[in-house]
Amino acid sequence: MARSTFKVLFYLKRQNEKNGKVPVMGRITVNGTISQFSCKLNIRPALWDTNANKASGKSVEAQRINEKLENIKTNIGKQYQRICDRDGYVTADKVKNAWLGFGDGYQMLMQTFDNYLKDFAEKRVGKDRAVSTLNNYTRARHYLAAFLQYEYKLDDIPFKELKREFIEKYVVYLSTVRGMVPGSIHIPVKKLKLMTYTAFRNGWIASDPFSGFHIQVTYRDRRFLSESELQAVMNVYVPNYKTAIVRDIFVFCCFTGMAHVDVSKLTHADIHTDADGEMWIIDNRTKTGTQFRVKLLPVARQLVERYSYLNLPGGAVFLVKDRDSMNMSLRQVARHAGLSFSPTMHVARHTFATTVTLSQGVPIETVSKMLGHKHITTTQIYAKITNDKIGRDMDALEMKIGDKFKIAQ
To answer: What predicted TM-score, i.e. pTM, was given to this entire model?
Structure first.
């Protein structure tokens, strides 16, 4: 088809002045056809440059309006190009309707989420993401679908209908109806944000409803074993040998910081011996693909040697059960060891970060690298400064200061 003429310009609807401002309108022209629309923006007439079809000057207000107008123009252009590539004809109304989310260009939230999950399962799981990550996304999708039914009695909703109010109602729903704590609410909300960003990036919506929206994240204290609790787990006699194996794997994770999914795929090939005879685990985290390096401490080294006779398939170091089964067995271990709570496999990772490393003076930057964290802020959630560590640091400070400072008599 012959290339059509296409133009987008902006103008003021001066007859609708209110409180000293007038609406900014838009006009799409395609092959002589014209379609007008509201930009949902208001501006003082003195700030408008008629020749340039935009706000004049470099004030914050002018820059904000021009940024939004440029975004509108870009997204309309994307819809125009998409229609040109797909159809045999194009009109101004067709372009406007596609940009507004009507007609063939109608894009839906849950349909987009489903497409994302399908691509994630086919292209990323088993490569750079774990199945557990897919499960988290699927759970977030379930929350969102339930919210649509609860609040709007809908199975799906167009992206064009998503406003700030929708997000705020979703946060309230997760808190009140679902009973989620503040430290967990941000997880499904982030998945919704990913969907709206996808819509914005593809030109399905003119602006991202999450723009300027922030949710305050508060993390609950992470449980970890103290030195005495860890020693009790290591010393306790466990009558069932299968439960004893679970205990040993848990202790191994306490001294390496490995997550369940990573220790379950650990092979002897992942354990390297350096020139000094020291053993290191060098691998990539299943969850994020980030590399981690951990030198095996004596306890971890002894456990590797204890199970080296098994000759497991694929050269696996341990025979690791699924996470739920491991956690069930750890309840028995906790009962025998006299713990006041039942640890999970993930508690081992927190114990490594807090009790085994940070409390013993290992810098948090080193702990972060051994845990395979991308950001040290994540490590700060895992690793806590214990009272014993504060006491030792203050004792060292007291020795260093000595009689350097004295109160005047």
So the answer is: 0.58
**CA–CA separation, 28 and 21 (whole Å):** 23
CB 10 within 8 A of CB 66: no
Could you tell me which CATH number the domain at 227-394 has? 1.10.443.10
| Of 59, 63, 57, 70, nearest in space to 9 by CA | 70
Backbone φ, ψ for residue 3 (5° rounding): -65, 130
Q: Which residues pair with 293 in a beta bridge?
A: 282
Domain boundaries, the chain: 6-105, 109-201, 227-394
Predicted confidence at residue 384, as pLDDT, reads 65
- Can you tell me the distance from the alpha carbon of 317 to that of 71, in angstroms, rounded to the nearest whole number? 54
Q: Kindly give the residue spans of alpha helices, DSSP state H, lying in 87-130.
A: 92-100, 109-123
Q: pLDDT tens digit string along 139-182?
A: 999 999 999 999 888 888 888 888 889 999 999 999 999 998 87
Q: Spell out, as residue ranges, where the chain has pLDDT lower than 70.
A: 1-4, 87-88, 101-106, 217-221, 382-387, 409
CATH number, domain 109-201: 1.10.150
What is the number of residues in the chain? Answer: 409
Residues 6+ apart with CB under 8 A from 43: 12, 21, 22, 24, 55, 61, 65
Q: What is the 8-class DSSP label of residue 354?
A: I
Joined tokens for residue 219:
């993390």
251 neighbors 234 (Cβ within 8 angstroms) = yes
The one-letter amino acid code at 241 reads Y
Q: Would you say 261 and 286 are in contact if contact means Cβ atoms under 8 Å apart? A: yes
Same CATH topology for 109-201 and 227-394: the answer is no
Instruction: Please report, as a single letter, which amino acid is at residue 305.
Output: E
